[in-house]
Amino acid sequence: MSHLEQKRDGFKSQWGFILACVGSAVGMGNIWRFPYMVAAWGGLTFLLPYFLFVILIGSTGVIEEIALGRSTGAGPIGAFGKCTEIRTGKTFGQWIGFIPVVGALCLAIGYTVVVGWIFKYTFMSLTGKLSAMGQDMDAIGGMFGSTASAWGNNLWLMIAVGVTLAIMAFGVAGGIEKVNKVMMPALFGLFILLGIYIFTLPGAESGYQYIFTLNPKGLLNPELWIFAFGQAFFSLSIAGNGTVIYGSYLGKNENVVKSAMNIAVFDTIASMLAALVIIPSMAVGGAALDTAGPGLMFIYLVNVFNGMPAGTIVGIVFYICVMLAGITSLINLYEVPVAALQEKLGFKRITAVGTIAVIGCIVALLIQAIVSGWMDAVSIYVCPLGAMLAGIMFFYVAGKGYAEKAVNEGAVKPIGPWFVTMGKFVFVPLALIALIAGAIFGGIG
Fold this sequence. Notes:
Helix content: over 70%
Shape: globular
Number of strands: 0
Structural class: mainly alpha
Number of helices: 20
Strand content: under 5%
Order of helices and strands: HHHHHHHHHHHHHHHHHHHH
Radius of gyration: 21 Å
Distance between the termini: 40 Å
């Protein structure tokens, strides 16, 4: 083992790792997209195939990316290079590894703009500026329109970058792990409290009825299965980057399979909590249940909260939850290029974090008016491509023997031969389908 590897930072506990991975997975897809998908596709009719795909992807792709990172002790560049070295003796795979690294940076930059919005709205909820707009949709819509415009949210965007990268400057164990150990339990606890309160409000029952309604005929619609798959695929943050880098910080004695299972379970619980808060809230406010995207969080829910009893408190708790989810996801995305600078260019942690902070902040400020198109391009094309490449590297290039050894290290009970078979012939093709379907439908997750 090299001197660099001996000094490499890492998670101090398996739960610290799990909570960090859950933090990376729980984000805007869980909060503003998942409730919409549940409502738009008929509640339980959507949930059944969604749960099926979570199990499938969690037991293949999530395990694979954690094991790939841990076994190589590196992010995508080093991990891909190690895989081609095993097969050919040459590390040309590291050049392919630049694709998911660039993808993570680009996604982080777009996400920075969104997290900047969240910081602003959290502040406005705390100061009463959101509640002061009442249910004046012109005022509410105008506020978001001015925020989500060119140079419309500069201060809060820079604050979001500053907070995120300041946490990362303390390292994996001292910053990322510690923060996620606080933020993730807080997020789940606050969402549960919100859900309990919403349950007591008149009209909420129609939202629950909608969530748990099953239309058997709807299950025959192929598009339902495509979008349920897309939601599960992207919700679990399978992109050949974030989970790989976090996996590289996991101890060799930890159980990869158990970790992947917990990540999938808690990510799904977070999505369901969001749906159980948002859909009944919309029902209480008499709003359309199939509203999606930024408009749901920054326009329609503001109107709904301002019209319900104790709505000011509800808004404060809700936006704090969203802010926690945004920060933990952003940390994971930025960690990929930060680690790449450390691994490939020998940067010190502070120097790498500072470099990425400057790049991320400048580009994010410039793309505020086009962030939607920016995010679509990255998520539709680069993320599934990164996931597919990681799967190919692990299952095909490194090979069966390496894959099984990497996964079983630290396991009490070795995983069966089904894992590599499923990875090769189910997960990798599904990643390709995610890429193709995303291009056809303009995004599926």
